[in-house]
Amino acid sequence: MKILSKMLLTAVLLLSAGLLFAAPKTNEKPDWVSGWRTMYPDETYIAQLGKAVGKNAADEAKNNAANAVAQYVQTTVQSEVQSNTVFTTETRANGTMGTSTKKTNSQDIKLSVDLTLSSLEFTEPWYNKKEKAWYCVAYVSREKTWEQYRPNLQAARDKLFAFYKAAENTSEPLYRIRYYAQSHDYEQAFYEAFSFSRLFSVPLTEQHYGADALFVSGVQALSAEEKSRCTFAIEVSDDVQSFVYQKLKDCLSSGGYTVKNKGEEAEYTVNAALILSDSPAGDLHVISPSLELSVNGKTATVFSYAKTAANFHGLKEDIVKAKAAKAIADEIGKSFMQEFTDTLGKDADDALSQLLAL
To answer: Are 117 and 66 contacting, i.e. CB atoms less than 8 angstroms apart?
Structure first.
């Protein structure tokens, strides 16, 4: 009996020793602590290390790691957008010169951060007894986050390219210029989304949208090419001292358009009728000036314009009419190009508006 008891005791001791020998060290340093950059390479992951001091600070270490990822994303997005911002001088549709810039949208930065954090994973926090601190790595797959963000980039791309499609489908060069000008704000949104997408994965962004970005970069050149095709001939009936003709020529030229000499063939013809109605009052000539104008393409009228001015009166008819004609020319100078730019082709925008509303 004693022998049996000794054998059982020996077996228990040996078993206990074996278990102790096989038991893992509870505070063994994981590989990721010193090599987390290697385990979560930057080309594949967005990863950051979090640290918190205190025996019960494991959750704090996780939170610090998550905050570090959020800060990294925010800073990198701002840097990415800034580095991809292009400052270009361009001629806008109304003929003015402007600088094109792309600004970071704080809502888009928040979206980028939220998307990243929604897919965040963590290593098991590790406690460093010597430092009395917890460590944890927060990481997220770039490809996974890129796929989550992709619908935003695709939506920005589709809205922008709707303008390009509309430009491609119209036969009127003036309408194409209009669509290119209208695309400006959507171009900015696309570039921002493109930059954010590159934050998550440069290879995937370039593979799927690099060609689109390259095309967008050349749109201003396309617009300038279309504008060079938009030549104008001006015909004014009953003009006085060419006041109206000269003012229309000045307006179109200042807008970047070419005005052909009289008799030369042009893409568009400006047909203007100066109306100087005379309502005599005794010896006085009372002139009521007005203008009716249309811009006609090869197949249709693309723009209509009308203007009036205050009455002029005097004894000499030619002098009064000259004053009235000059007044109409002054009104043209104030409003013609603005109305031309604002209302040109609006009747052709319905289908595009419906598409953008989708």
So the answer is: yes
Identify residue 260 by its one-letter amino acid code. K
Angle between helices 58-83 and 106-118 (to 10 degrees): 140
- Say whether pTM exceeds 0.70: no
Domain count, the chain: 3
| Complete DSSP assignment for 119-140 | T-EEPPPEEETTTTEEEEEEEE
In a shared domain, residues 252 and 324 = yes
Q: At what angle do helices 243-254 and 317-343 cross, to 10 degrees?
A: 20
d(CA 260, CA 222): 22
Q: Give me the half-sphere count of Cα atoms (radius 13 Å) on the Cβ side of residue 170.
A: 27
Tokens of 54: 């205190």
CATH number, domain with residue 294: 3.30.160.150
End position of a domain, from candidates 142, 171, 186: 142
* 60 contacts: CB under 8 Å, gap ≥ 6: 52, 54, 134
Which structure tokens are listed for 119? 């897919």
User: Regarding beta strands 126-128 and 45-53, do their DSSP bridges make them parallel or antiparallel, or are they unpaired?
Assistant: unpaired
Domain end: 170, 194, 227, which one? 227
Q: Along the 358 residues of the chain, how does pLDDT read in single tens digits?
A: 444 344 333 433 333 333 333 333 446 889 898 899 999 999 999 999 999 999 899 999 999 999 998 888 877 766 655 555 443 434 344 433 333 444 445 555 666 667 667 778 999 999 999 999 999 999 999 999 899 999 999 999 999 999 999 888 888 888 888 888 888 879 989 998 898 888 889 999 999 999 999 999 998 888 888 888 889 999 999 999 999 999 999 999 998 899 998 778 899 999 999 999 999 898 899 999 999 999 999 888 989 999 999 999 999 999 999 999 999 999 999 999 999 988 775 555 554 555 455 4
Q: At 291, which helix (H) or strand (E)? A: strand 285-296
